[in-house]
Automatic annotation (TrEMBL):
Known function: Part of the MsrPQ system that repairs oxidized periplasmic proteins containing methionine sulfoxide residues (Met-O), using respiratory chain electrons. Thus protects these proteins from oxidative-stress damage caused by reactive species of oxygen and chlorine generated by the host defense mechanisms. MsrPQ is essential for the maintenance of envelope integrity under bleach stress, rescuing a wide series of structurally unrelated periplasmic proteins from methionine oxidation.
Record keywords, A-Z: Metal-binding, Molybdenum, Oxidoreductase, Signal
Quaternary assembly: Heterodimer of a catalytic subunit (MsrP) and a heme-binding subunit (MsrQ).
Post-translational modification, as annotated: Predicted to be exported by the Tat system. The position of the signal peptide cleavage has not been experimentally proven.
Limits of the Oxidoreductase molybdopterin-binding domain: 98-255
Pfam families on file: Oxidored_molyb
Single GO molecular function: oxidoreductase activity, acting on a sulfur group of donors, quinone or similar compound as acceptor
Species: Bosea caraganae
EC number: 1.8.5.-
Entry protein name: Protein-methionine-sulfoxide reductase catalytic subunit MsrP
Chain sites annotated for binding Mo-molybdopterin: 81, 84-85, 138, 173, 226, 237-239
Cofactor(s) of this protein: Mo-molybdopterin
Catalytic reaction annotation: L-methionyl-[protein] + a quinone + H2O = L-methionyl-(R)-S-oxide-[protein] + a quinol; L-methionyl-[protein] + a quinone + H2O = L-methionyl-(S)-S-oxide-[protein] + a quinol
Length: 318
């Protein structure tokens, strides 16, 4: 049980990992419990049926990301969700219990040096985790502020080794109507897909999330792996990802497929550009009477405004 089993499709670590990431990881393990304990703990956890990544939490907080508002209560965030695979109400906790986040394999394909699949529990140990406090703004004009745990998407892009022709990253959620009843509703363009330009994907803010409030991410928040792009409306932050593709053409996203006149590819937060059916000027903080003015790029203009130079002709804010 303590011997790490390597499945046929798994690359030896030194092959799959760029050197910088590989050496970071060794430094990371060396600083922590040590190589032997670091490798054994998850195996024991898996055998006991507990989450095999518990030993990675809580991760060290990155002090570069600070908030201008209180952190939303964990219970509130965990009980007010959008996860259409499990229903269109905000109360999906019960239905989402059917999601099985183990075993979980992520396919990396498209325009990469060599497509591969990787188990989530292997992936999470290839890149050091950190905690970040981010604002989060849903297109429906409510917002929250939460501590996410994860790693920069940029590190995963480096691991994937995209070819120069790759211009976009496309993310896909699992597809299984037997566990996700919403996926039986044929008028939705399942599976849920999202996309970013390469420049967006390699921006320091784009985070692959594995945890929230210092623990592995629970099902309703998108276990075991989701995206968080805090300068964009929440629907870009696709949950329960099992495929990441590097492509030349701009991917058609789930919400665009459903209603292109209301939900576009870019979806950058902008208080001055209303949704066709409501204003985006202010937002309701979850769990508070406080309505706040919405901030351009959700307050992250300094980090991301430069990504959109020369794209002024596009529908950047819906
Ligand atoms: N697969 C999937 N991802 C999704 C959604 C969804 O319905 N399915 N909803 C999106 C929307 S609209 C929002 S606001 C956020 C909500 O994330 P949270 O429930 O963790 O707060 O998830 C996004 N990611
Ligand atoms: Mo949303």
């Amino acid at each position: 049980m303590l011997i790490k089993r390597r499945l046929g499709w798994e690359l030896p670590e030194s092959q799959a990992t760029p050197e910088s990431v590989f050496f970071n990881r060794r430094a990371f393990l060396g600083a922590g419990a040590g190589l032997i304990a670091g490798a054994a703990l998850p195996q024991i956890a898996a055998a006991q049926g507990t989450d095999p990544t518990l030993d990675l939490y809580p991760a060290k907080q990155n002090p570069a990301y600070t908030l201008d508002r209180p952190v939303t209560e964990a219970d509130l965030a965990a009980n007010y969700n959008n996860f259409y695979e499990f229903g269109t109400s905000k109360d999906v906790v019960g239905a989402a219990k059917r999601l099985q986040p183990r075993p979980w394999t992520i396919a990396i394909d498209g325009m990469v040096e060599k497509p591969f699949e990787i188990g989530f529990d292997d992936l999470i140990r290839k890149i050091p985790l950190e905690e970040r406090l981010y604002r989060f703004r849903c297109v429906e004009a409510w917002s929250m502020a939460v501590p996410w745990t994860g790693f920069p998407l940029k590190a995963l892009v480096e691991l994937a080794k995209p070819q120069s022709g790759a211009k976009y990253v496309r993310f896909e959620t699992f597809m299984n109507p037997r566990i996700a009843p919403g996926q039986s509703q044929r008028w939705y363009p399942w599976p849920y897909t999202e996309g970013l330009t390469m420049a967006e994907a390699t921006n320091e803010l784009a985070l692959m999330v594995t945890g929230i409030y210092g623990k592995p991410v629970p099902n309703q928040h998108g276990a075991p792996l989701r995206l968080i792009t805090p300068w964009k409306y929440g629907f870009k932050s696709v949950k329960s990802i099992n495929k990441i593709s590097f492509v030349a053409e701009r991917p058609k996203t789930f919400w665009e497929g459903l209603q292109a006149s209301e939900y576009g590819f870019w979806a950058n937060v902008n208080p001055e550009v209303p949704h066709p059916r409501w204003s985006q000027a202010s937002e309701q903080l979850l769990g508070s009477r406080d309505r706040r003015p919405t901030l351009l790029f959700n307050g992250y203009a300094e980090q991301v405004a430069g990504l959109y130079k020369g794209l002024e002709g596009e529908n950047l804010y819906m």
